[in-house]
From TrEMBL:
ATP binds at G388, E389, P390, D412, T413, W414, W415, Q416, T417, D501, R516, R527. Residues 33-83 form the Acetyl-coenzyme A synthetase N-terminal domain. This is Acetyl-coenzyme A synthetase. CoA binds at R193, R194, G195, N196, T312, S524. It comes from the Bacteria. It catalyses: acetate + ATP + CoA = acetyl-CoA + AMP + diphosphate.
Length: 646
């Protein structure tokens, strides 16, 4: 069999049993599934005891007001104390918490003792601005340590942070600030992108012009560029924070005290402010970070490449790793600045042992060439993770070979902003992994694949992914819109959380995610996942990356339109070859109507392809709102390179 024919989800059969040495030392074993099934609440109570509580809960779960859960009812804790102080109190103050690597190679080493001082100073500064528990604080910052200090200072004081991507437009920031009625905005003068200083405060100034809720803007100096200044409103971080006392006594809050709001886009209209609370959230991020990444805090160097403006940054840069006392790398820059080996250079420099990234970056590495990772010593790596979208088997295999040296287990972690923490993933050392499958709900988590009527499908069957039991880090609502919370997630199936993802079971009952159901195409009555077609395309040797959309078609309902980035130069014959290749891999029904060769794909800052924009092109419409694109010039680049007659 050729690699090609193995490389789409329909045929994927490879499995990789855990290495016995890894399994022997793993943090978890198969008994965790049985224990959690036997006594779910007892299991979660045991996980909650990873944390330090000022007073324990009276009951583990109150689901009487479903779908709004209360976890660890009556328990009290301070989230920042758990992420910082307790490690210092345990004598680990000299352990490095953060190896911060600036884009240009400037760096800072921050120990847990340093982190405690910085977070305390920041908390004292926020108190001096008159902020009180429950107030909202908007944060738009680059990937600099102050972003983490700011989030933890909010957590310490019971302030609710709302982190907004550095790349979001003023309009997007404004709607988030307004929706949450934030009193404070924390930002920086500018940010470095590919060696250039780009303005940030100019954008935030524009965003909050005339905004009544914002009383102060706290500004970190990062690039040193000149900024406009509003006296009485704007305060420099170094003026306010640096002079504060570096001690601060944390106060415990209720387990259900709000911790943060994070906006995520829905299928329609305004972004949704997903609300997370304290005790359950921290419990599940700490547990999953321990179990899924097999973290050994004394020896591992962990690196999650997400941006803190994304939920992965919240849960697996800030709260999970720090609650577990991890040593981690935080990197400010882009993967190709100043060169395409930057990530591998950082892995080598710090001896990174656990690396967690997104399939889109893995495919980008593939496009750049195998020789780039081969030029670095990556032998410190012992576990690799993937998140954000389905990982096609081809990318999974490449990741395993070229970063993992065929030895590292890969954890494909499925979860969402709404779930707060990882829900479905292999357990390293326990699960025999399969390229492209997230496999099983974690111990303590309930998930199934159901049909239109909410009935679970059998082995080999496909349908919708639902979560059938409440979990500690579940969203507690959409900020200010309880009705939308119920209708979006809880009305589609009675008693189940509707995730919005398509999935199927294989013959072993393992779960394969097939992409958003809004991305599932219907061609002549056949349901075809964009992911399946993309996976087939990427299995062709000349394709580096592919995105597929269903475009309205008068005859078949929808027609499949594929956008591909080629590995080498342009090839006039390739479009028809690729159409045939997909037909061969999946079946004639999946043959794309059109294959368009493009230089780039439109992506959000978190690496998700914006299919909506590609659909606009495929359906010959004016391209819609591009404000959430990482690089808004991409659409012009794509359109200019296309032959309209194709
Ligand atoms: C963490 C995060 C959530 C959506 C989710 C799904 C997709 C995430 C995935 C995955 C397949 C995985 N997704 N991880 N699909 N396999 N391992 O990405 O949160 O930005 O809210 O996106 O991402 O479609 O519904 P968020």
């Amino acid at each position: 069999m050729t690699t090609d024919s193995l490389s789409n989800l329909m045929d994927e059969r490879r499995t990789f049993a855990p290495d016995s040495g890894f399994a022997a030392a793993a943090n978890v074993d198969a008994g965790w599934y049985t224990a959690a099934d036997a006594d779910r609440e007892g299991f979660w109570a045991a996980q909650a005891r990873r944390l330090s509580w000022e007073s324990e809960w009276s009951s583990v779960l109150d689901w009487s007001d479903a779908p709004v859960a209360k976890w660890f009812v009556g328990g009290r804790l301070n989230v920042a104390y758990n992420c910082v102080d307790r490690h210092v109190e345990a004598g680990l103050g000299d352990r490095v918490a953060i190896h911060w690597e600036g884009e240009s190679g400037d760096g800072r080493t921050i120990t847990y003792a340093d982190l405690l001082r910085e977070v305390s100073k920041t908390a004292n500064a926020l108190v001096s601005l008159g902020l009180r528990a429950g107030d909202r604080v908007a944060i738009q910052l680059p990937m600099i340590p102050e972003a983490i200090y700011a989030m933890l200072a909010c957590a310490r004081l019971g302030l609710v942070h709302s982190v907004v991507f550095g790349g979001f437009s003023p309009t997007a920031l404004r709607s988030r600030v307004d929706d949450a009625q934030a009193r404070l905005l924390i930002t920086s003068d500018g940010q470095f992108r590919r060696g250039n200083a780009a303005p940030m405060k100019a954008n935030t100034d524009e965003a909050i012009a005339g905004c009544a809720s914002i009383e102060h803007v706290l500004v970190v100096r990062r690039t040193g560029s000149t900024v406009e200044w509003t006296e009485g409103r704007d305060v420099w971080w170094h003026d306010l924070v640096d002079g504060q006392s570096d001690t601060h006594t944390p106060e415990a809050f209720d387990a259900e005290h709000p911790l943060f709001i994070l906006y995520t886009s829905g299928t329609t209209g305004n972004p949704k402010g997903i609300l997370h609370t304290s005790g359950g959230y921290l419990t599940q991020v700490a547990y999953t970070h321990h179990a899924v990444f097999d973290l050994k805090p004394e020896t591992d160097v962990y690196w999650c490449t997400a941006d803190i403006g994304w939920v992965t940054g919240h849960s697996y840069i800030v709260y999970g790793p720090l609650a577990n006392g991890a040593t981690q790398v935080v990197y400010e820059g882009t993967p190709d600045s100043p060169h395409q080996g930057r990530h591998f250079e950082i892995i080598q420099k710090y001896g990174v042992s656990i690396y967690y990234t997104a399939p889109t970056l893995i495919r980008t590495f593939m496009k750049w060439g195998d020789e780039i990772p081969a030029g670095y010593d990556l032998s410190s790596l012992r576990l690799l993770g993937s998140v954000g979208e389905p990982i096609n088997p081809e990318a999974w295999m490449w990741y395993r070979e070229h970063l993992g040296g065929q030895r590292c287990p890969i954890v494909d972690t499925w979860w969402q902003t709404e779930t707060g923490a990882i829900m479905i993933s292999p357990l390293p050392g326990v699960t025999s992994t399969k390229p492209g499958s997230a496999q099983r709900p974690l111990p303590g988590v309930g998930a199934r694949v159901v049909d239109d009527a909410g009935v679970e499908v059998g082995p080999g069957g496909g349908g919708y992914l639902v979560l059938d039991k409440p979990w500690p880090s579940m969203l507690r609502g959409i900020w200010g819109d309880e009705e939308r919370f119920r209708s979006t997630y809880w009305s589609r199936f009675d008693g189940f959380y509707f995730a919005g993802d398509g999935a199927k079971y294989d013959a072993d009952g393992d779960i394969w995610l097939l992409g958003r159901v809004d991305d599932v195409m219907n061609v002549s009555g056949h349901r075809i996942s964009t992911t399946e077609v993309e996976s087939a395309l990427v299995s062709h040797p000349s394709v580096a990356e592919a995105a597929v959309v269903g475009a309205t078609d008068a005859t078949t309902g929808q027609g499949i339109v594929a956008f591909v980035i080629l590995r080498g130069g342009q090839d006039a014959e390739v479009a028809s070859q690729l159409r045939d290749h997909v037909a061969k891999e999946i079946g004639p029904i999946a043959k794309p109507r059109q294959v368009l060769v493009v230089p780039e794909l439109p992506k959000t800052r978190s690496g998700k392809i914006m299919r909506r924009l590609l659909r606009d092109i495929a359906e010959n419409r004016a391209v819609g709102d591009t404000t959430t694109l990482a690089d808004s010039s991409v659409m012009a680049l794509i359109s200019s390179g296309l032959n309209p007659a194709e």
